[in-house]
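Write out this protein's structure.
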Amino acid sequence: MSANQDVRDLLGMRSRTAYLVIALYAVSCLVSALSTLEGVRSIWPILLAVPICVGGAVLLLAAPGDPLPLKASLALIAVGPASCGAIYTVVPIPISSSLQTWPFGSSVAIYTFMCVRGRTSFAWIGLASTIAVSIVWAVQSGQGLGYGLSLSGINIAPLLMATFFAFTIRPLAKSVFELRTQSTLRIASEAAASAVLEERDAQLRRLDEQARPLLGRIVDGPDLQPDEVMACALLEADLRDSLRARGLMDSRLVKAARSARSRGIAVIMLDDRGRELDEKVHAELTSSAAAELDHIGSGSVTLRMLPPGRATIATILHDDADDIRRLEYGPDGRIVGAETT
Protein backbone atom coordinates (compact mmCIF):
# COMPACT_ATOMS: atom_id res chain seq x y z
CA MET A 1 0.00 0.00 0.00
CA SER A 2 1.12 3.57 -0.62
CA ALA A 3 1.92 6.13 2.08
CA ASN A 4 -1.63 7.45 2.07
CA GLN A 5 -3.10 3.94 2.24
CA ASP A 6 -2.39 2.86 5.80
CA VAL A 7 -4.31 0.00 7.38
CA ARG A 8 -4.10 1.94 10.67
CA ASP A 9 -6.81 4.23 9.33
CA LEU A 10 -9.26 1.35 8.98
CA LEU A 11 -8.57 0.12 12.51
CA GLY A 12 -8.54 3.55 14.13
CA MET A 13 -4.91 3.15 15.18
CA ARG A 14 -4.19 6.85 14.59
CA SER A 15 -7.08 8.10 16.70
CA ARG A 16 -7.06 9.53 20.22
CA THR A 17 -8.94 6.46 21.36
CA ALA A 18 -6.05 4.26 20.23
CA TYR A 19 -3.62 6.22 22.40
CA LEU A 20 -6.06 6.01 25.28
CA VAL A 21 -5.93 2.23 24.87
CA ILE A 22 -2.13 2.48 24.99
CA ALA A 23 -2.42 4.41 28.25
CA LEU A 24 -4.64 1.68 29.70
CA TYR A 25 -2.16 -0.92 28.40
CA ALA A 26 0.64 0.89 30.23
CA VAL A 27 -1.39 0.97 33.45
CA SER A 28 -2.16 -2.75 33.16
CA CYS A 29 1.53 -3.56 32.65
CA LEU A 30 2.51 -1.50 35.70
CA VAL A 31 -0.22 -3.03 37.86
CA SER A 32 0.78 -6.53 36.72
CA ALA A 33 4.41 -5.81 37.55
CA LEU A 34 3.71 -4.36 41.01
CA SER A 35 1.17 -7.03 42.01
CA THR A 36 3.42 -10.02 41.21
CA LEU A 37 6.48 -9.24 43.31
CA GLU A 38 6.12 -12.18 45.69
CA GLY A 39 9.44 -13.99 46.00
CA VAL A 40 11.32 -11.86 43.43
CA ARG A 41 14.98 -11.20 44.14
CA SER A 42 14.94 -7.64 42.77
CA ILE A 43 12.22 -5.26 41.63
CA TRP A 44 14.22 -3.39 38.98
CA PRO A 45 14.18 -6.03 36.22
CA ILE A 46 10.43 -6.32 36.74
CA LEU A 47 9.97 -2.57 36.38
CA LEU A 48 12.29 -2.54 33.35
CA ALA A 49 9.93 -4.89 31.52
CA VAL A 50 7.16 -2.27 31.77
CA PRO A 51 8.75 0.44 29.56
CA ILE A 52 9.95 -2.22 27.13
CA CYS A 53 6.37 -3.38 26.53
CA VAL A 54 4.85 0.11 26.60
CA GLY A 55 7.53 1.48 24.27
CA GLY A 56 6.82 -1.36 21.85
CA ALA A 57 3.09 -0.56 21.89
CA VAL A 58 3.72 3.13 21.21
CA LEU A 59 6.10 2.29 18.37
CA LEU A 60 3.51 -0.06 16.90
CA LEU A 61 0.99 2.78 16.67
CA ALA A 62 3.33 5.62 15.78
CA ALA A 63 5.56 4.02 13.11
CA PRO A 64 4.30 5.28 9.72
CA GLY A 65 3.88 3.28 6.56
CA ASP A 66 2.36 0.02 5.50
CA PRO A 67 3.65 -2.57 5.96
CA LEU A 68 5.36 -1.66 9.23
CA PRO A 69 8.90 -0.33 8.55
CA LEU A 70 11.73 -2.86 8.83
CA LYS A 71 13.59 -1.09 11.66
CA ALA A 72 10.42 -0.82 13.74
CA SER A 73 9.64 -4.49 13.06
CA LEU A 74 13.07 -5.60 14.22
CA ALA A 75 12.72 -3.51 17.38
CA LEU A 76 9.31 -5.03 18.14
CA ILE A 77 10.65 -8.56 17.72
CA ALA A 78 12.86 -7.89 20.74
CA VAL A 79 9.97 -6.80 23.01
CA GLY A 80 8.99 -10.33 24.03
CA PRO A 81 12.46 -11.83 24.60
CA ALA A 82 13.77 -8.69 26.35
CA SER A 83 10.83 -8.26 28.75
CA CYS A 84 10.53 -11.96 29.56
CA GLY A 85 14.30 -12.32 29.88
CA ALA A 86 14.30 -9.43 32.38
CA ILE A 87 11.73 -11.03 34.70
CA TYR A 88 13.28 -14.51 34.46
CA THR A 89 16.45 -13.17 36.09
CA VAL A 90 14.60 -12.38 39.33
CA VAL A 91 11.42 -14.50 39.61
CA PRO A 92 11.46 -17.35 42.15
CA ILE A 93 11.95 -20.95 41.06
CA PRO A 94 9.35 -22.28 40.77
CA ILE A 95 7.34 -19.12 40.10
CA SER A 96 4.82 -18.11 42.75
CA SER A 97 2.05 -17.39 40.22
CA SER A 98 1.52 -17.69 36.48
CA LEU A 99 0.80 -13.94 36.52
CA GLN A 100 4.50 -13.35 37.11
CA THR A 101 4.97 -14.11 33.41
CA TRP A 102 2.72 -11.21 32.42
CA PRO A 103 5.19 -9.97 29.73
CA PHE A 104 4.15 -12.96 27.63
CA GLY A 105 0.61 -11.66 27.23
CA SER A 106 1.75 -8.07 26.86
CA SER A 107 4.23 -8.88 24.08
CA VAL A 108 1.81 -11.22 22.28
CA ALA A 109 -0.69 -8.33 22.12
CA ILE A 110 1.96 -6.37 20.22
CA TYR A 111 2.72 -9.32 17.95
CA THR A 112 -0.95 -9.75 17.03
CA PHE A 113 -1.13 -6.18 15.74
CA MET A 114 2.15 -6.66 13.89
CA CYS A 115 0.28 -9.25 11.83
CA VAL A 116 -2.38 -6.69 10.96
CA ARG A 117 0.32 -4.21 9.97
CA GLY A 118 1.78 -6.63 7.46
CA ARG A 119 4.63 -8.16 9.45
CA THR A 120 3.24 -11.59 10.27
CA SER A 121 6.55 -13.43 9.84
CA PHE A 122 8.29 -10.95 12.15
CA ALA A 123 5.57 -11.47 14.76
CA TRP A 124 6.11 -15.23 14.69
CA ILE A 125 9.86 -14.75 14.97
CA GLY A 126 9.24 -12.59 18.03
CA LEU A 127 6.97 -15.17 19.64
CA ALA A 128 9.38 -18.01 18.79
CA SER A 129 12.24 -16.03 20.38
CA THR A 130 10.15 -15.43 23.50
CA ILE A 131 9.29 -19.13 23.77
CA ALA A 132 12.97 -19.96 23.30
CA VAL A 133 13.90 -17.65 26.18
CA SER A 134 11.30 -19.39 28.36
CA ILE A 135 12.60 -22.85 27.49
CA VAL A 136 16.23 -21.87 28.14
CA TRP A 137 15.25 -20.44 31.54
CA ALA A 138 13.25 -23.55 32.42
CA VAL A 139 16.08 -25.91 31.44
CA GLN A 140 18.76 -23.90 33.25
CA SER A 141 16.63 -23.69 36.37
CA GLY A 142 16.13 -27.45 36.39
CA GLN A 143 12.41 -27.35 35.59
CA GLY A 144 12.76 -29.01 32.21
CA LEU A 145 12.05 -28.21 28.60
CA GLY A 146 8.43 -29.33 28.87
CA TYR A 147 7.69 -26.86 31.64
CA GLY A 148 9.15 -23.94 29.69
CA LEU A 149 7.18 -24.90 26.62
CA SER A 150 3.91 -25.33 28.52
CA LEU A 151 4.41 -21.99 30.23
CA SER A 152 4.84 -20.08 26.98
CA GLY A 153 3.20 -22.24 24.32
CA ILE A 154 -0.32 -21.15 25.19
CA ASN A 155 0.46 -17.80 23.56
CA ILE A 156 0.56 -19.43 20.13
CA ALA A 157 -3.25 -19.52 19.93
CA PRO A 158 -3.91 -15.74 19.95
CA LEU A 159 -1.14 -15.12 17.45
CA LEU A 160 -2.53 -17.85 15.21
CA MET A 161 -5.95 -16.16 15.27
CA ALA A 162 -4.33 -12.80 14.53
CA THR A 163 -2.56 -14.37 11.54
CA PHE A 164 -5.85 -15.57 10.04
CA PHE A 165 -7.42 -12.19 10.80
CA ALA A 166 -4.57 -10.39 9.03
CA PHE A 167 -4.98 -12.61 5.96
CA THR A 168 -8.62 -11.46 5.89
CA ILE A 169 -8.37 -7.77 6.77
CA ARG A 170 -5.36 -6.80 4.66
CA PRO A 171 -6.79 -7.86 1.25
CA LEU A 172 -10.04 -6.20 2.31
CA ALA A 173 -8.16 -3.05 3.25
CA LYS A 174 -6.50 -3.01 -0.17
CA SER A 175 -9.93 -3.25 -1.83
CA VAL A 176 -11.26 -0.43 0.36
CA PHE A 177 -8.36 1.84 -0.54
CA GLU A 178 -8.73 1.04 -4.25
CA LEU A 179 -12.43 1.92 -4.06
CA ARG A 180 -11.56 5.13 -2.21
CA THR A 181 -9.03 6.07 -4.92
CA GLN A 182 -11.52 5.33 -7.68
CA SER A 183 -14.16 7.37 -5.88
CA THR A 184 -11.75 10.30 -5.49
CA LEU A 185 -10.81 10.17 -9.17
CA ARG A 186 -14.47 9.98 -10.18
CA ILE A 187 -15.39 12.95 -8.00
CA ALA A 188 -12.44 14.96 -9.39
CA SER A 189 -13.48 14.06 -12.94
CA GLU A 190 -17.08 15.03 -12.27
CA ALA A 191 -15.98 18.31 -10.68
CA ALA A 192 -13.77 19.11 -13.68
CA ALA A 193 -16.59 18.29 -16.09
CA SER A 194 -18.98 20.41 -14.05
CA ALA A 195 -16.53 23.31 -14.08
CA VAL A 196 -16.20 23.05 -17.86
CA LEU A 197 -19.98 23.07 -18.27
CA GLU A 198 -20.35 26.03 -15.92
CA GLU A 199 -17.67 27.95 -17.81
CA ARG A 200 -19.33 27.11 -21.12
CA ASP A 201 -22.71 28.27 -19.83
CA ALA A 202 -21.16 31.49 -18.51
CA GLN A 203 -19.53 32.15 -21.88
CA LEU A 204 -22.80 31.43 -23.69
CA ARG A 205 -24.69 33.82 -21.41
CA ARG A 206 -22.03 36.48 -21.94
CA LEU A 207 -22.11 35.96 -25.70
CA ASP A 208 -25.90 36.07 -25.72
CA GLU A 209 -25.98 39.30 -23.74
CA GLN A 210 -23.32 41.06 -25.79
CA ALA A 211 -23.62 39.66 -29.29
CA ARG A 212 -27.33 38.93 -29.76
CA PRO A 213 -28.44 42.60 -29.99
CA LEU A 214 -25.80 43.39 -32.63
CA LEU A 215 -26.48 40.20 -34.58
CA GLY A 216 -30.18 41.01 -34.55
CA ARG A 217 -29.39 44.51 -35.77
CA ILE A 218 -27.29 43.09 -38.64
CA VAL A 219 -30.04 40.67 -39.66
CA ASP A 220 -32.92 43.13 -39.40
CA GLY A 221 -31.10 46.04 -41.11
CA PRO A 222 -30.68 48.74 -42.14
CA ASP A 223 -26.93 49.08 -42.66
CA LEU A 224 -24.89 49.58 -39.52
CA GLN A 225 -23.90 53.08 -38.49
CA PRO A 226 -20.21 53.87 -37.83
CA ASP A 227 -20.69 53.68 -34.05
CA GLU A 228 -22.33 50.27 -34.43
CA VAL A 229 -19.48 49.02 -36.60
CA MET A 230 -17.08 50.14 -33.87
CA ALA A 231 -19.19 48.33 -31.27
CA CYS A 232 -18.97 45.13 -33.34
CA ALA A 233 -15.19 45.47 -33.63
CA LEU A 234 -14.82 46.06 -29.90
CA LEU A 235 -17.04 43.08 -29.11
CA GLU A 236 -15.04 40.86 -31.44
CA ALA A 237 -11.82 41.96 -29.72
CA ASP A 238 -13.31 41.32 -26.27
CA LEU A 239 -14.36 37.80 -27.27
CA ARG A 240 -10.94 37.14 -28.77
CA ASP A 241 -9.24 38.25 -25.56
CA SER A 242 -11.45 35.98 -23.47
CA LEU A 243 -10.17 33.02 -25.51
CA ARG A 244 -6.53 33.96 -26.11
CA ALA A 245 -5.72 35.84 -22.90
CA ARG A 246 -7.65 34.16 -20.10
CA GLY A 247 -4.92 34.93 -17.57
CA LEU A 248 -5.24 38.66 -18.25
CA MET A 249 -8.96 38.90 -17.73
CA ASP A 250 -9.47 41.64 -15.19
CA SER A 251 -12.28 44.20 -15.21
CA ARG A 252 -9.94 47.20 -15.14
CA LEU A 253 -7.59 45.83 -17.83
CA VAL A 254 -10.51 44.79 -20.05
CA LYS A 255 -11.96 48.29 -19.73
CA ALA A 256 -8.59 49.88 -20.50
CA ALA A 257 -8.11 47.68 -23.58
CA ARG A 258 -11.59 48.54 -24.88
CA SER A 259 -10.94 52.23 -24.30
CA ALA A 260 -7.62 52.04 -26.15
CA ARG A 261 -9.23 50.26 -29.10
CA SER A 262 -11.97 52.84 -29.26
CA ARG A 263 -9.18 55.45 -29.66
CA GLY A 264 -7.88 53.57 -32.71
CA ILE A 265 -5.06 51.68 -30.98
CA ALA A 266 -4.55 48.05 -32.04
CA VAL A 267 -4.39 46.00 -28.82
CA ILE A 268 -3.35 42.35 -28.85
CA MET A 269 -3.50 40.33 -25.62
CA LEU A 270 -1.92 36.88 -25.36
CA ASP A 271 -1.60 34.36 -22.51
CA ASP A 272 1.22 31.89 -23.16
CA ARG A 273 1.67 31.08 -19.50
CA GLY A 274 -1.13 28.57 -19.07
CA ARG A 275 -1.05 28.86 -15.28
CA GLU A 276 -2.85 31.11 -12.85
CA LEU A 277 -0.82 33.77 -11.10
CA ASP A 278 -0.91 34.52 -7.42
CA GLU A 279 -3.85 36.81 -6.69
CA LYS A 280 -1.67 39.73 -5.55
CA VAL A 281 0.74 39.34 -8.48
CA HIS A 282 -2.16 39.17 -10.93
CA ALA A 283 -3.71 42.31 -9.46
CA GLU A 284 -0.39 44.18 -9.61
CA LEU A 285 0.27 43.13 -13.21
CA THR A 286 -3.19 43.91 -14.59
CA SER A 287 -3.35 47.23 -12.72
CA SER A 288 0.02 48.33 -14.12
CA ALA A 289 -0.86 47.14 -17.63
CA ALA A 290 -4.20 48.97 -17.50
CA ALA A 291 -2.45 52.19 -16.45
CA GLU A 292 0.01 51.79 -19.31
CA LEU A 293 -2.81 51.35 -21.85
CA ASP A 294 -4.56 54.43 -20.51
CA HIS A 295 -1.52 56.58 -21.35
CA ILE A 296 -0.98 55.28 -24.89
CA GLY A 297 -2.41 57.51 -27.60
CA SER A 298 -1.43 55.83 -30.87
CA GLY A 299 0.15 52.84 -32.55
CA SER A 300 -0.24 49.22 -31.54
CA VAL A 301 0.21 47.39 -28.24
CA THR A 302 0.94 43.72 -27.57
CA LEU A 303 0.47 42.54 -24.00
CA ARG A 304 1.78 39.01 -23.53
CA MET A 305 2.11 36.69 -20.55
CA LEU A 306 5.26 34.61 -21.02
CA PRO A 307 5.63 30.83 -20.56
CA PRO A 308 6.61 29.58 -17.06
CA GLY A 309 10.28 29.35 -16.13
CA ARG A 310 11.36 32.75 -17.43
CA ALA A 311 12.78 35.63 -15.41
CA THR A 312 9.89 37.86 -16.48
CA ILE A 313 6.22 36.89 -16.44
CA ALA A 314 4.87 39.39 -18.95
CA THR A 315 5.82 42.05 -21.48
CA ILE A 316 4.17 45.05 -23.09
CA LEU A 317 5.39 46.07 -26.54
CA HIS A 318 4.22 49.48 -27.76
CA ASP A 319 4.92 50.25 -31.40
CA ASP A 320 4.06 53.66 -32.83
CA ALA A 321 5.36 55.70 -35.75
CA ASP A 322 8.34 57.11 -33.83
CA ASP A 323 9.75 54.32 -31.69
CA ILE A 324 9.22 50.94 -30.06
CA ARG A 325 8.93 50.71 -26.27
CA ARG A 326 9.18 47.45 -24.35
CA LEU A 327 8.24 46.90 -20.70
CA GLU A 328 9.06 43.76 -18.71
CA TYR A 329 7.30 42.55 -15.56
CA GLY A 330 9.03 40.55 -12.86
CA PRO A 331 7.65 37.68 -10.78
CA ASP A 332 6.02 40.14 -8.37
CA GLY A 333 4.00 41.76 -11.17
CA ARG A 334 6.02 44.99 -11.11
CA ILE A 335 7.96 46.57 -13.97
CA VAL A 336 11.60 45.46 -13.85
CA GLY A 337 12.84 46.81 -17.17
CA ALA A 338 11.98 49.34 -19.87
CA GLU A 339 13.64 49.71 -23.27
CA THR A 340 12.99 52.14 -26.09
CA THR A 341 14.36 51.76 -29.62
